[in-house]
Amino acid sequence: MIHPPKCDLNRRAILAGTSAGATLIALHHFSTRAAANQAHLRLMETTDLHVHIYPYDYYSDRPVDTVGLARTAAHIGEIRAEATNSLLFDNGDFLQGNPMGDYIAYERGMNVGDMHPIIQAMNAVGFDASTLGNHEFNYGLDFVLNSIAGADFPVISANIVCRLGAEPTEDTPLVTPYVILERMLTDGAGLAHPIRVGVIGFVPPQVMTWDRRHLEGKVAARDIVETARAWVPVMKDEGADIIVALNHSGIGEIAHVDGQENASIPLAAVDGIDVVMTGHQHLSFPGPAFAGIAGVDAKKGTIHGKPAVMGGFWGSHLGVIDLLLEYDGARWRIARHESELRPISRRNEDRTVTPLVESERYVLDSVEKEHKETLSYIRRAVGRTSAPLYSYFALVADDPSVQIVANAQLWYVAEMLKGTPYEGLPLLSAAAPFKAGGRSGPEYYTDVPAGDIAIKHVADLYLYPNTVRAVRVTGAELKGWLERSAGMFNRIVPGGRDQVLLNPDFPSYNFDVIDGVTYRIDLSQPSRFDPKGKLLDPSATRIVELAWRGKPVADDMEFVIATNNYRAGGGGEFPGATGDTIILQAPDTNRDVIVRYIAEQGTIDPTADNNWRFAPMPGTTVLFDSGPRAIEYVDQMTALDIEPAGDGPDGFIRFRIRL
């Protein structure tokens, strides 16, 4: 096992080693100003690491500067050097989330005595405690228990239990509900004093739905706030000076709701909890994403006046809470506090990324073998595709690269909805082409040849780390959703020749194709919405002949649409996708679902089913630009009357479509 230089809780180090060499670090002002009865304690948080250790995107098979515990570890060393005393916590979701996690779960395995690479890396960095997140259960109970058995730190969770008792304190826990860390604090006079830091962990109870196949009949989940109210007094009775909640749960509803998924606000109101470390939402706190919420100070980083952080995801940020503690003769209490985030990279206005730290070599070395094995894994075929997957014509016809995403979402959501009240509703799937030229240039297209398909090819099919969502909509909202998508096209004059088809201000990722229904787009009509989703003409109707199983869709019909968290939460301003229609918040990314679908099918048939077309406009032609390689596939576009029309601007090739 490779470890960094020993870094005790009690220290006044002023040198921090980084990959760039030793750097002089000034102590935090809480450390320099602490009096004889005061001590500075620095708490650090990582959350939602999802097996991101190396700064590497295994999907695209290339290094990146925006992820990786090896990068976050550079900040951890600096933070320890800036404080007299420090503790490091992880807030869960560490075992699953990228191909390294899948490699360990599906290929190498986790038997008793095996070491998981994320645990190896966390041991090397020197964590003091961690909680379980919902994704820890994705591979089953044996997997998570075998994995955390190798941890040099306690892994806790209070609300996931093997057997329910009359109240939480009488439950039979799956793992230790909480831990009391006994440490020595160095005060402002340089004297050491004992302190007892209570740490308790929580996970969203929705894990019982998300991983029903692994957990049903084996464990149960309690409400987060209910569990906290029961256990915190016990921790106080055991002498905890301060209590830190490792809450793998986001900042959501203000009031407590039984079974709440994002329960950090009511949790912070529980008497006796001093610090709340949050996560699960893959957001950053303090930060503007949480501005304007009652009880939350998004600038200072407090919830109900108590210090809190959410350290991004994949190692993107280190959450830091500084506590100035005072001893009142019996216990330590918090006199002052500050919250901040330390990012590992900066995104520039030109979309480039500047790394702010370099990777710590000892972290990379701790999992170098597993990293190399993962590279071999992602470069191997996980299935085959019977036809090429390309997006050159995704904006003008039903498309194989979009079709396979829609198919995978349908397959996944249908399984997730079994046994729920929504199982019998018509299930549809919305997917958009992400790589479709435009301002990104003539090479910016998906292009995966027929034959073996590797995990890294999934990056060509799905660019973003979205998670799966399902929404319940009416027939009227379904039509409105498609009207919003149809804003991709300029209005075409019937009988006109060689009119420009696409609106250049409309991004391709907002051109949702919805599978499970059939429809046509009448380009002679005005768009109902502008490119940003603003309603222009409520009576405008481009979507015609909308049908489900051959029958016209009525406004009062109900449907479930499989989509992603961006769209379901209101991204793109789509009717029916406004955040309040969500019926399923799945724990898996769309990328992971596609990989699993391909592996399950063995050989996929991505042939588009042509469920949508343009309405006929006799004597009318339009022009459409695509990438140069589109010419190799134009003969396959049997649903279109299309022909090459010479060169387009800026390296594109032009096509003419007869409507």
Automatic annotation (TrEMBL):
Annotated GO CC locations: outer membrane-bounded periplasmic space
Annotated family: Belongs to the 5'-nucleotidase family.
Leader peptide range in chain numbering: none
Cofactor requirement: a divalent metal cation
Biological processes per GO annotation: nucleotide catabolic process
Protein name per its UniProtKB record: 2',3'-cyclic-nucleotide 2'-phosphodiesterase/3'-nucleotidase
GO MF terms held by the record: 2',3'-cyclic-nucleotide 2'-phosphodiesterase activity; 3'-nucleotidase activity; metal ion binding; nucleotide binding
Domain Calcineurin-like phosphoesterase stretches: 42-282
Reaction catalysed by this enzyme: a nucleoside 2',3'-cyclic phosphate + H2O = a nucleoside 3'-phosphate + H(+); a ribonucleoside 3'-phosphate + H2O = a ribonucleoside + phosphate
Location(s), subcellular: Cell envelope
Transmembrane segments: none
Keyword Translocase in record: no
UniProt source species: Rhodovulum marinum
A family per Pfam: 5_nucleotid_C
5'-Nucleotidase C-terminal domain ranges (all copies): 440-575
The entry's keywords: Hydrolase, Metal-binding, Multifunctional enzyme, Nucleotide-binding, Signal
SUPFAM superfamilies given in the database record: 5'-nucleotidase (syn. UDP-sugar hydrolase), C-terminal domain, Metallo-dependent phosphatases
